[in-house]
Amino acid sequence: MYMFATKRKSLLLSLSLLMALSATIAGCSKQNPETAPSAATEAAKTGKKEETITMSWPRDIGPMNPHLYNPSQLFAQSMIFEPLVMYKDGKIVPHLAESWAISPDGKEYTFKLRSNVKFSDGTAFTAKTVKKNFDAFMNNMKLHSWLGVVNVLEKTEAIDGSTFKLTLKEAYYPTLYDLAVVRPVRFLAESGFPDDGDTSKGVKNPIGTGPWVLSDYKKDEYAVFTPNQNYWGDKPKVDKVVVKVIPDAETRVLAFEKGDLDLIFGEGLISFDAYKQLEKSGKYATKLSEPVGTRNLVLNTMNEKLADLRVRQALHQGFNKKAMVEGVTLGMEEKADNILPKNLPYANIDVKPVEYNVEKAKALLEEAGWKLPAGKTVREKDGKALELELLYEKADLTQKAMAETLQAEWSAIGVKLNITGVELTVYIQRRKANQFDMNFYSNFGAPYDPHSFMTGVVQKGFGLSDPLQALPMKAEIDQKIKEGMKITDEKARTELFGSVLTTLQEQSSIIPVSYIKKIAVYQKEVSIVNFPSNRDEHPFYGIDKKE
After folding, report:
1. pTM score, whole prediction
2. CB 245 within 8 Å of CB 8
3. Element (DSSP H or E) covering residue 365
């Protein structure tokens, strides 16, 4: 999901050129960035030096439509559009809704909206507008069926100007978590809607309630965001955020070292080597986030060789996880013992780590009937070799390096591992069709998990449930998940989900490898670079630049 490989065009445009081109760019852009007082104009009035944060991104920000997906970039959408509630530090907190009430049966959610919120065009944020947005994406619910609340939503109502109500067909505990994601449950002003109201075909203007507006844009080159003068919350501290499109990771690093970039932020945007070199130089500030996801190996139990728990356990014990993770990621990721990071809701469970032990791994394979014939290096059983395939996305160099390490380590216990790198589209197709022995899987992170992970374990066709089908307790796991999704008792849900995660861990059907982290590398005059709790949110909350 994160690797890129084309060269950038020249992006070193002066401020005067940006201003001169703005009208032309706005005319050729389908997004028609809204007209607002420029940061330069505001700075001129106050005599204050204009402060700009320049960041790079591997691709164009895409259409800023809160109800659509690719190729729109999540961080950019989150700058413009806001949710009713936010995910912060493991909890759901008020945002555009200042409070809410949930009926005892868990089917009705009534939200009290903030009274002082305006869209960036000056129009009021009301329950009527909230309903209009819900109606828009629910009219295209097939696009959004991955989001659980969409599938159980029965009715929406604007009770009055500041009260909005959701009615569900059945209780669904992740409702608030689903409302905190970056898309599609964020809000566009009425003036941004197309005449027929169908946002699946596009929007007139990307007008939201967020702290930023898109004020200048040239496809595949740059996007310029300036503060929303009508913002209801804490105003941005800088005058402008410029996002330069730089597809190539090495070029991105060179631009940063040259001073053309203030910030590199995200996952997989530069190599581990490059991060370490920038950190070691002492010239820049560097940060790693808390775990945002777990890099796992999924073992397909529908393969008769992997259906045997002893074989799966042998593979789990048969590689030095700590050494591999430290070697491949240069210590930037940590060895993972849990399928989901413990900082996610309901995932803070204590499991016994699986220790690296080659002799125990060999013994388990022997016990399972996989013998090593004299003069051979690959174990056999009933005339068949213990040969498996590990599928990985070939553009992901971390997956590739880990696959090569596993291939070498498992050969020491008599397992022949064939590693196959494929394009992302093929990778996804094979996962969905369950055409693999094992592959890499990373959970979505907050605010999607643990319920998105749990849904994947239950629902076929997403590459997680299907390979678990041969587990003898699969039906029991599914039942616990379905019950946990509906009940309103927090303690009971914690026990159910903890039991599911523990069982999957003990079965070695999903092997945790490492905890994925975001990086931030920035010039030292930039201050207050924080990692949002929501994996997809932008990093510009409270960001500042020293004089």
Report:
1. 0.87
2. yes
3. helix 358-367
23-27, 34-38, 265-269: which is most confident = 265-269
Q: What are the residue ranges spanned by the domains of the chain?
A: 15-77+210-272+520-545, 85-192, 293-516
CATH number attached to the domain at 85-192: 3.40.190.10
Residue 159 structure tokens: 């009770």
- Residue 499's SS3 state is helix
Which residue, chain included where needed, has tokens 């388990």? 364
Does residue 38 surpass a pLDDT of 70?
Answer: no
Q: Say what the alpha-carbon torsion angle 222, 227, 230, 232 is, to the nearest 10 degrees.
A: 120
CA 119 to chain centre: 26
DSSP 118: B
122: left (phi over 0), alpha (psi -120 to 50) or beta: left
Topology of domain 293-516 in CATH is: Dipeptide-binding Protein; domain 3 (3.10.105)
Residue 220, CA atoms < 13 Å, CB-side half-sphere = 7
Asked if residues 237 and 543 have their Cβ atoms less than 8 Å apart, the reply is: yes
Contact indicator for 200, 143 with CB cutoff of 8 Å = yes
Q: In 477-538, at which residue ranges do the beta strands (DSSP E only) sit?
A: 510-516, 519-523, 526-527
CB 182 within 8 A of CB 144: no
Q: Is the pLDDT of residue 1 over 90?
A: no
pLDDT band at residue 45, thresholds of 50, 70 and 90? low
**Confidence label for 33 from pLDDT (cuts 50, 70 and 90):** low
3-state secondary structure 302-326: CCCCCCCHHHHHHHHHCCCHHHHHH
Question: What was the pLDDT predicted at 462?
Answer: 84
> What local confidence, expressed as pLDDT, does residue 47 receive?
58
The CB-side HSE value for 232 (13 A sphere, CA atoms) comes to 22
